[in-house]
Amino acid sequence: MKKRNITEFQILSEIVRKQPHVKQKEIAEVLGITVQGVSEHIRNLLKKNYIKSRGRGEYVLTDTGMRALKTWISEFKNYLNDVNQDIYRYKEIWPAIAYEDLKEGDEVYLFMKKGNLYASKFNKTESTAKVVEGGKEGEDIAITDIKGIIDIKKGKVIILKIPPKVKGGSKNVDYDLIKKILDDNKDAVIASMGTISYVVSNKLGIKPDIRFAVPEGVVSACNRGCDVIGFITGKMTEKIVKILDKNKISYTVLDTAKNTDE
């Protein structure tokens, strides 16, 4: 991310905040640069058609400038998220879950399971650490001196397309098919989107892990290495598929309707 680009987008942000009456001196004071520097950047923004002048120091963003600013904001958010993740590498003490009974001083291997960090003396991986506070299997422990990279393979998604009410709803669902999928993927995170999907999960005695902000939750779970089974009602499937494609997450769509002619 080039310094010049950052400065120009900061100027665009200031123009959005204060338009149309924008004083270059005020922008210079906010950004900590000279008025001459602001003037140079504004000339460049005018050339790019990111802004247009109304005279007398009045500037407004063009449609091109607004799109560029939105794109930059999105990219900058991703950049900050990456930096935030890197910062955590410098923590001296990390929490983890004991895969088996562990005690202080144990040398352990680290791995992700269902979105959580686990430590084990026997499950060998590329990442190691030292236990500073032990615990029994399944308890939280404290680790330090993390070395290597914790392998996080992006999870995959099985979308169980649940028929909407106009196609029979929960009464037209192949529950045997769903039970088989659940049995074959016992560690998967369960997501439910739509009223009919929630009813179906209730009939199966399942409490979904993700019910709200489902698309974002599914992507987040996959990025943490979790496989996901999504109970998704009708055309809501299309929304989920688009988001999974955008985030390059592999998925399978299975129609759970018993009678597709209804």
What's the structural blueprint in terms of helices and strands?
Layout: H1 3-18, H2 24-31, H3 35-47, E1 51-55, E2 58-61, H4 63-88, E3 94-98, E4 107-113, E5 116-120, E6 128-133, E7 140-147, E8 157-162, H5 175-184, E9 189-193, H6 195-203, H7 214-223, E10 228-233, H8 236-246, E11 251-255
Parallel strand pairs: 3-5, 8-10, 8-11, 9-10
Antiparallel strand pairs: 1-2, 3-7, 4-5, 4-6, 6-7
GO molecular function, one term: DNA binding
Pfam family, one: DUF7839
Organism: Methanothermococcus okinawensis (strain DSM 14208 / JCM 11175 / IH1)
Please characterize this protein's 3D structure.
With 262 residues, the protein is an alpha/beta fold. It folds into three domains: 3-87, Arc Repressor Mutant, subunit A, CATH 1.10.10.10; 94-147, no CATH class; 157-255, Cobalt-precorrin-4 Transmethylase, domain 1 (3-Layer(aba) Sandwich). The protein is 39% helix and 24% strand. A hairpin with a 2-residue loop joins strand 1 and strand 2. Helix 2 crosses helix 3. The protein is flat and about 70 Å long.
Strand order of the largest sheet: 3-5-4-6-7
Let me know the number of strands.
Answer: 11
Please identify the structural class as seen in this structure: alpha/beta
Name given to the CATH architecture of the largest domain: 3-Layer(aba) Sandwich
Mean pLDDT: 88
User: Rg to the nearest angstrom?
Assistant: 26 Å
**Terminal CA distance:** 54 Å
| Count of discrete domains | 3
Compressed to H and E, one letter per element, the order equals HHHEEHEEEEEEHEHHEHE
Assign a percent range to the helix content. Answer: 25-40%
Spans where pLDDT lies below 50 across 5 or more residues: none
